[in-house]
Amino acid sequence: MKTVLITGVSSGYGRETALHFHSQGWNVIATMRTPRTGVLPESDRLRVVELDVTKPDTITAAFEAAGPVDVLVNNAGIPSMGVFEGMPMARVREVFETNTFGVMATTQAVLPQLRERGSGVVVNVTSSVVLGHMPLTAVYKASKMAVEGFTASLALELAPFGVRAKTVEPGACLTTNFAARSMNGGSPDELVPAPYAAWAKKTMDEFTSQDLFTEESDVAETVWRAVHDTTGQLRFPAGPDAVRLAQAK
């Protein structure tokens, strides 16, 4: 029976991915910054473990608690929307610490055991923002583009050892409340300075009126497909809007 460790499982894509792998008979190590009950069903094949991708000690402890891992899914991330001019540099660094450096840290922690075993998969969840040019996402896109480049080179480094690396690129999911979570305590006036306000509102209105969106199940199923792919495909758009962007690109 194989084991998957998934980061950022408290809600959204991470939670749905954990449920999907569990339903397929896998052992699931579901990690959260602050573990809590009631998020996932009780099962002897599902364990909730503390892991904050920005804290090395929790990464080490989580992998020690997990035991042998066949697949790592780097799902943990924080959203960030706003005009770059109004984005505090502290916020920029926070986004990169989780979305980029956190992915690298957990990946580095799991690689020795995958390499020694000669098998395994690392799946890095990025975003459909990497597939097109989207306003109000400059910092978020930069953090995810970095992961795309990282994964592409990583895949080449790991191939001689029988280990694969993939990216999954989810589209926009309304149920994850991306825009509200992007503020992270900041005020809209700060992240969207007055000269940009009217334009930003028009942009967001157009975005939310689009006809295609991604469901959480789309992402879980695409992660599953990426894990089992042996064709050499590197990037997997998830959700109808992401697929459309990928095809247009």
| Strand elements, count | 7
What's the order of the H and E elements?
Answer: EHEEHEHEHEHHHHEH
Strand content: 5-15%
Mean pLDDT over all positions? 91
Radius of gyration: 18 Å
- Note the overall shape: globular
The domain count comes to 1
Total helical elements: 9
Derived from helix and strand composition plus strand pairing, the structural class reads alpha/beta
Gross CATH architecture: 3-Layer(aba) Sandwich
* Text of the CATH class: Alpha Beta
* Adjacency order of strands in the biggest sheet: 3-2-1-4-5-6-7
The main β sheet shows up as: 7 strands, parallel
What is the distance, rounded to the nearest whole angstrom, between the alpha carbons of the first and last residues? 38 Å
CATH topology: Rossmann fold
- At the fourth level of CATH, the homologous superfamily is NAD(P)-binding Rossmann-like Domain
**Runs with pLDDT <50, length 5+?**
185-189
In percent, how helical is the residue content? 40-55%
How would you summarize what this structure contains?
This protein has 249 residues and is of the alpha/beta class. The protein has 9 helices and 7 strands; from the N terminus they run E-H-E-E-H-E-H-E-H-E-H-H-H-H-E-H.
